[in-house]
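Bit of a strange request maybe. I'm writing a small parser for structure token strings and I need a real example to test against, not something I typed by hand. Could someone generate the tokens for this chain?
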Amino acid sequence: MPDISDYLLSKYKEVFQISYVLSPILKNDTYNHVLIEEDNSSHFQKLTITNVPQNSILLDLRKVSKLNLGDKMNKVFKDTSGLFKCCDYLLLFSMDKQIFLIYIEMKSKGYKEEDISQKFKGAYCFINYCDTILEQFFGLQDLSSTPIKINKVLISKAILNKQPTNTNVSSIKDFCHYQVTINKKSASIQFKKLCKDLLTKM
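Reply from user aminoacidic:
Good idea to test on real output. This should exercise your parser:
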């Protein structure tokens, strides 16, 4: 049996539809993940996460939001507001027998803290649900004893010369762990910058 964290990643690849699971791209001897912003009017279109672990996978959670689960589940819940929102991506990788989850939301325009918070919460619930499904129906081992570390990262347009009222430092820490600002159509960021707080705690 391989390391449990590698085993989980292999299970995700095995069970999920192929369009949801993205493997890293090898370029110039390094592995990278490419995040694409679907809105053509966005201030940035592409973000490349460089030097990612070879065993990492990127889940495209935007497809979950497009399923409109809230419209279906309103027959169960009285209020489905925000329950079935999802952030854009989830980066999963394993290291030293630990599982790391980096939830990523991309916003090139204005945003509300509550909306971002709901997207991170919705994605967290969806992944927990998927893990339970994998355990109960696909033979995934119990993960309760496996350390799991989480970061929530907001990627937004850089605001120059002024601090927006709805993204002050204190409020950002309330709904995400880390914020990355970019002001180019196409940009790149080192993998370790997205998870440096997690790795320093190891």
